[in-house]
Amino acid sequence: MKAFDYARATDLSDAIGASGCLIAGGTNLLDLMKLEVETPSALVDITRIGLNEIVPEGDGLRIGALVTNAACAADPAVRRGWPLLSRAILAGASPQLRNKATTAGNLCQRTRCSYFMDNRSACNKRQPGSGCAAIGGINRNHAILGTSDACIATYPGDMAVALAALGAQVEIEGPGGTRHIPVADFHRLPGEDPSRDNVLEVGEVITAVLLPAPVEARQIYRKVRDRASYAFALVSVAAVLRMQDGAIAQAKLAFGGVAHKPWIDPRVDSLLVGETPSKALFDKAADLLLEGAEGQGGNDFKIPLARRTLAAVLAEATAE
Amino acid sequence: MAQSPAARIAVNGVTYEFDGDVRRSLLDFLRRDLGLTGTKKGCDHGQCGACTVMVNGRRINSCLSLAVMHDGDEVTTIEGLGAADNLSALQKAFVSHDGFQCGYCTPGQICSAAAMMEEIREGWPSFASEDVAGRVHLDDEEIRERMSGNLCRCGAYANILTAIKEVMESGAKP
Q1: What string of pLDDT tens digits covers the 320 residues of chain A?
Q2: Which keywords has UniProt assigned to this entry (chain A) (predicted)?
């Protein structure tokens, strides 16, 4: 690990505009620092600045940026009103990691592309302009939607997939003030500049995630992975779906493991609403979702896997 | 903002001052600086769980945590749970059920299990829970899922499960 200066922030103002790299749980950052994929010259420890409570806000919830994943998943209000969020968090990592990892850190976690994590490999995300060793390499875990010639990495998390389906917002404080953006718009597609995972600007700090009022709907998170536990998603589907009089009255879907961000496709949600559930309908939804999907060889299986996972989730969500 | 502050860290009830290299992990602090070698270094990347300790009662991977960030924290290691002449209930159960072969993962397994029992007591759900909003219905699947952050390359999982269940069912202090 490269040497760095360490400073301990005492309040949020120390973190906003800080010249160092912010560290809280550190479960991803320190791993990458050991690999010297991340080499910050200074760390600012923000674990003592508060932002670690879950409180009601309107009919929704404010989840502080530094609430641990474990605390969020175990929170009685989250479990009652937004069980999808608990379920998705509990699908990720291990209990030890969830006890350290924070809400904001989880959003900012980096891809687990093995070429990104190996300094000897070409990687446009780690070293812009060096190429992408995953294209034509071992790419079993890589993206099938929204890729570019520069990067086919996936966003690895589960929590953000649930938050995208729930319509949550990220609250961001910066030197210029506060802004709110939907979680679904927080992460970027790689395009020409895969080095940027998300839309955070230099000096900005995530202060909270805001959940809208709970909806009376079925909430499902299904994650398909290589092991039964403690593995990243090959494909995951988060669904918030409400039935009325035998038809789908409301549908919000988000997909993990398939793209550089939690993937949402409002056309798929619209296609489902007002329709009576059937295998033909689920096929049409999958066709639309995957019409632009592209395999890279090793991950070709993700296309039929996403189709089947979507069908399974829709069948479960619409069952009598 | 405090530049390069030191840290006062309580380990198994004794408070130590840490003023070393800020790169030092909590794991290396415990093993190298304090000589508490019960906590093991396996992967050093948060994947195996051999380095599991409790910080303020919660289990974490001590390899993925900087010692300097633990100012004011209370750390419990395997040495704080039991000793050779005074084994804890979990240690006794691991011995009596052969919950290990080489033993390298065992301190992490036991620290993890002790903290897991507290999580269950507080009603935390897991991915194996049928209803995350409901009461925890404890079965083998629940324990396996909750212990998934601790790998055992000897594959002693079946006996680890038996040992943990015995202590949980007895209601003994872990």
Answers
A1: 999 999 999 999 999 999 999 999 999 999 999 999 999 999 999 999 999 999 999 999 999 999 999 999 999 999 999 999 999 999 999 999 999 999 999 999 999 999 999 999 999 999 999 999 999 999 999 999 999 999 999 999 999 999 999 999 999 999 999 999 999 999 999 999 999 999 999 999 999 999 999 989 999 999 999 999 999 999 999 999 999 999 999 999 999 999 999 999 999 999 999 999 999 999 999 999 999 999 999 999 999 999 999 999 999 999 98
A2: FAD, Flavoprotein
Tokens representing B15 are 């408070």
Per-residue CA distances from B84 to A70, A173, B96 (Å): 33, 52, 14
Buried b (16+ CB within 10 A) or exposed e, B144-172: bbbbbbbbbeeebeebbbbbbbbbbeeee
Residues B115 and B160 in one domain: yes
Is the Cβ pair A95, B59 closer than 8 Å? Answer: yes
Write b or e for each residue in A270-298: b if 16 or more Cβ atoms lie within 10 A of its Cβ, otherwise e. Answer: ebbeeeebeeebbeebbeebbeebeebee
Element (H, E) at B54: strand B52-55
Q: At what angle do helices B89-96 and B157-170 cross, to 10 degrees?
A: 140
> Total structural domains in chain A?
2
Residues B95 and B76 in one domain: no
Which residue range forms the structural domain that includes residue B162?
89-170
Residue A118 phi/psi, 5-degree rounding, is -125, 110
Contacts of B23 in chain A (CB under 8 A): 1, 3-4
- B94 and B76 assigned to the same domain: no
Contact (Cβ atoms closer than 8 angstroms) between residue B28 and residue A30: no
Per the structure, the complete domain to which residue A40 belongs is given by 5-45
Answer whether B64 sits within 8 Å of A91, measured CB to CB. no
Residue to test with chain B: of A34, A94, A232, most B Cβ within 10 A: A94
Query: Does the ipTM surpass 0.85?
Result: yes
User: Which of A6, A79, A100 lies nearest to residue B60, judging by beta carbons?
Assistant: A100
Residue range B91-134, pLDDT digits in tens: 999 999 999 999 999 999 999 999 999 999 999 999 999 999 99
Q: Within a domain: residue A178?
A: no
Helices within B31-154 (DSSP H only): 78-81, 89-96, 106-121, 140-146
Chain A residues near residue B57 by CB distance under 8 angstroms: none
